[in-house]
Amino acid sequence: MRRAGLGEGVPPGNYGNYGYANSGYSACEEENERLTESLRSKVTAIKSLSIEIGHEVKTQNKLLAEMDSQFDSTTGFLVLCPM
């Protein structure tokens, strides 16, 4: 299927804008650039947040391991001490 008006009247080899008026094409390109930059900033924010979450998980796991060790030593102490 062929769209009316696309490529008509365009000099041979000048298909960079696919037959659209330069102003409309520029508007689309500008909108794409704006949306791309917006997406890039959102991805960067999510990446930073996920890295921070990873650090927090490592810290919490370390604290839990220390608590587990302390509970184990306390349990051993209570078992050895008759009541």
UniProtKB/TrEMBL annotation:
Q: Which domain of life is it from?
A: Eukaryota
- Cellular component, GO, one term: Golgi apparatus
Please name the GO terms of the biological process aspect recorded for this protein, alphabetically.
protein transport; vesicle-mediated transport
Q: Which Gene3D superfamilies match?
A: 1.20.5.110
Q: Which UniProt keywords apply?
A: Coiled coil, Endoplasmic reticulum, ER-Golgi transport, Golgi apparatus, Membrane, Phosphoprotein, Protein transport, Transmembrane, Transmembrane helix, Transport
Chief localisation class: endoplasmic reticulum
Looking at the record, the residues that make up the T-SNARE coiled-coil homology domain are 26-75
Its topology with respect to the membrane? Answer: Single-pass type IV membrane protein
Where, per UniProt, does this protein localize?
Endoplasmic reticulum membrane; Golgi apparatus, cis-Golgi network membrane
Q: Relate the protein's function as given in its record.
A: Required for vesicular transport from the ER to the Golgi complex. Functions as a SNARE involved in the docking process of ER-derived vesicles with the cis-Golgi membrane.
User: Subunit arrangement?
Assistant: Interacts with SNARE complex members GOSR2, SEC22B and STX5. Interacts with LMAN1/ERGIC53. Interacts with STX17.
Entry similarity comment: Belongs to the BET1 family.
Q: What is this protein called?
A: BET1 homolog
Species, as recorded: Gorilla gorilla gorilla
